[in-house]
Amino acid sequence: MQSQVRITVYQAGQCDPKKCTALKLHRHGMVRIVSQMKFLPKRAVVLNPFSEIAFSPADRKRLEDFGLAALDYSWERTEKVLQKHVRGTSRCLPILIAGNPVNYGKLTKLSTVEALAAGLHIAGFQERAAELLSIFKWGHTFLELNRDRLEAYASAENSTEIVELQRTLFPGAY
After folding, report:
1. Nearest to 129 by CA among 9, 17, 10, 25
2. Which of 25, 91, 114, 140 is the most exposed place for a label (fewest CB within 10 A)?
3. pLDDT at position 109
4. What is the CA radius of gyration of the chain?
5. Is the dihedral of CA 6, 90, 60, 134 positive or negative?
6. 78, 52, 60, 50: which is closest to 122 by C-alpha?
7. Mind listing the pLDDT tens digit for each residue in 11-39?
8. Structurally, how many domains does the chain consist of?
């Protein structure tokens, strides 16, 4: 049985509440929402697209002990805020393809639920990842589009191997 990972989402209030995946996860009792970054768990792994360290299976123990956090921002407004210090241990996800209706097929333009599910899957919490995605009609699409990539990333040992895998899987992205 997989242990439970505490999930926290900093919600910046920049997206349409009807389309916000973080708010829907919260309504289903799957994540805790915070409205200020200072309320993110101190030592949790924070999914931050501007981190210079790639998320990898090596982060599993930290997820079990301190939790996983996501930053829910509008893509147009993220860079300025996220380049500042973010509480927790920042990690960027490896390259994946969005399955959500807004950014379908785009590299790295993941919704909050896709980012959380990717992190959980890579760290070995595949059941929990599928559970989060299951409340969205299109959730299975993300897993189908990225199945081979997610499995490859989950088999890596550390951040360095993740970066090497990305170069192999997405040679045109570099």
Report:
1. 25
2. 140
3. 92
4. 15
5. positive
6. 60
7. 887 778 788 999 999 999 999 999 988 89
8. 1
